[in-house]
Amino acid sequence: MGNYFIEKSLNNNVLVATYHGDEVILVGKGIGFNKKVGDIIDTDSVEKVYELKTFQDQQRYKTLMDIADDEVIKVVIEVVDKIKDMIEEEVSDTLLLSLTDHIIFAIKRMEDNILISNPFSNETEALYPREYSVASTAVNMLNERLNVYLPESEVGFIALHIHSSISRQSIHDMNLMTEVVAKAVQIIEHDLKIEVDKNSIIYARFVRHISFAVQRVMANDVAPEQRNLENLLKAHYPVCYNVAIKIVKMMQTLLNKPVYESELVYLTMHIQQFNTEALDV
């Protein structure tokens, strides 16, 4: 199987090592105690191994380790370890690279008083509530351990990295999803002259529907046509139906793919729920 050779000790529980020439991160209670560079690590003492498989990822991580303080690297590894413990599904080891990269530059921006807003925080929380909750824990841990004050907006960004490492979706695709949701809500609020309650069950259902709709579009799946129901909704709820048409056109533009008319039925029903809720207030 081969041996792990120590390259660098971050603390008693975290080591940087080489394995068959590749750099890995080893985590284990007391694994680095009284160890020095070049020592061989007993595999029985290793609890977790973070392996960056591609040469590009390995080189990127080495660069990050060179530019970042050892304490930052150590705490990020502990945060990723915590995230893996909190998420039941398999989390890709690439999270270590993406989160290290993100956090190093988030701290640098904070030190330079450069604030970056996250306009899709609400949408991210609605789409990925579990990941958002875990990300909130991660940000609190980073702030406490590194004595920094990463803003609330970072929770949404880190939640996307977590979901990406689970779903193997790209950050670009997930940003696209949140943008579709945000623009759809903007269209509804503008045309119906209402303010959508983003803490409501109706909003949560709408976000889930848009999420599935985007996934269908990207996979070129077609929902079954319901012409009779579509004509009925068009006649009874013309304003909501027209809003649905606008949302479909927006989706086609952002996704650069056709959105089939069958989506209009489901969208109209969801939009009508927003309209009904506003009238009941």
Explain what you see:
The termini are far apart. The protein has helices at 55-67, 70-86, 94-111, 121-127, 129-146, 153-167, 171-192, 201-218, 227-236, 238-255, 263-280; strands at residues 4-11, 14-19, 22-27, 40-41, 48-51. The mean pLDDT is 86. A five-stranded antiparallel beta sheet has the order 4-1-2-3-5. The chain is of the alpha+beta class. It has three domains: 1-51, Transcription Regulation, Sacy, Chain A (Roll), CATH 2.30.24; 52-169, Orthogonal Bundle (PTS-regulatory domain, PRD), CATH 1.10.1790; 172-280, PTS-regulatory domain, PRD (Orthogonal Bundle), CATH 1.10.1790. The protein has eleven helices and five strands; from the N terminus they run E-E-E-E-E-H-H-H-H-H-H-H-H-H-H-H. Helix 4 (121-127) runs parallel beside helix 6 (153-167), helix 8 runs antiparallel to helix 11 and helix 10 (238-255) packs across helix 11. This is Transcription antiterminator. It holds the Pfam family PRD. Keywords: Repeat. GO terms for molecular function: RNA binding.
